[in-house]
Amino acid sequence: MVFGGRGARRLFAAGLALLVLLAALGCANPFAPSQDGKATSQALLDELRSQEQDAASSAGAKPRPDTGSGKKETRSSAPQDSAQEFPDLLKELVGGGESDTDVFSQLLGGLLGGGTKQEAVRPFAEGSAQGNRGLLFEAKKDGRTVYLMGTIHVAKREMYPFSPEVKKAFQEAGALAVEADVTSLGEQLATVKYTLDGMYSDGRTYRDALPKDVVQKIDEFKSRNRGSAMLIQDSFKPWYLYMMITQVRLSSSLLKDFSPAYGVDMVLIQEAKKLGKPVRSLEGASMQMELLSTLPDDVYAELLRKELSQDDAAYRQEMESLHEFLRTGDTAALERAAVADYRGKSQALETYYQKVIVERNQNMAQRIEEELQRDGRPLFVAVGAAHVVGPDGLAEIFRKKGYTVRQL
């Protein structure tokens, strides 16, 4: 199927956002055709309407007229992530009528229906098995306890199982807190909607916004990875271009034994939901996308230059090293690999570090303390390892707040 015009650009951007999210959910081949695509789309619509009704009921909703589906619907006066019906949201996203919505629904069904699940992992060691240490800190103050676990969003099966000590901390906790619950439908839709801003609509391209040497590196990358060319469009803004290039590299055959389905945060979210443990977002997808979209173009020029200057062998080795550092809990090595590389290198990278690491860490620390006030039970926090280690990491922030902090 071929698309053209502004509506096509919007459809394409939304589809790409879904691709990124579905990759995070472990779909190995999101473009594979699906016999159940239409049913999957309908199931998603039904789920969204169900969430809307649940949210409305809990917020004191007013009845809505019957839509003809045989179900009574409600509308809440309070804002909710999923308060807008999905068909209406699709029309807003694509800026078109019923035909555009139908096309998007078909695309959505094919994406959601495609792919195969990765082999399930056992997150924690059982019995006398030792398991992997992982990167876990305990912070205590005035009878309150928070466990801080550093994660990697794309991992190998060998990351698991974690040690009985990690299991004990996880089971003790009253809730799991993550950067964003990527399994939440509301989070996924918010990301799709926001990602539409990732493409120029006035005829400009990333070639107009980036230095010539960076554009040349992008062209070389596309020529080496011809399968990714359809995912990297000239109309992408630098921030979205960077997001897509990093996603393409993470999804490449070079890292075929790595998978988002084995990402530590994803595995822990699934385990928490299996145990009926609440999952709380410290930031949310919308906030993360907002931050990424507001960083200056020169920051992304430097990030792209850095990313694309690394050959495939070095990229693979870096991922292997990060994985091993995290599996064994090597804090010093993680700090060197995940934090120090951005300090003192250039003004652009320093800006990135301050915005993406320092400011987010301060905000997350505040949210964590708010969550600790809920019921007095320990809180298990799982966020990217770069947010836990280093002089500006969460472990150090809580130490400065008067908590007794130790690595487990």
From TrEMBL:
Database matches in Pfam families: TraB_PrgY_gumN
UniProt keyword Cell cycle present: no
Domain of life: Bacteria
Residue span of region Disordered: 50-85
CDD domains, per database record: Tiki (cd14789)
InterPro entries for the chain: TraB/PrgY/GumN_fam (IPR002816), YbaP-like (IPR047111)
Keywords: Signal
Compositional bias ranges of the Basic and acidic residues kind: 63-75
Signal peptide interval: 1-28
Protein name: Uncharacterized protein YbaP (TraB family)
Organism: Brockia lithotrophica
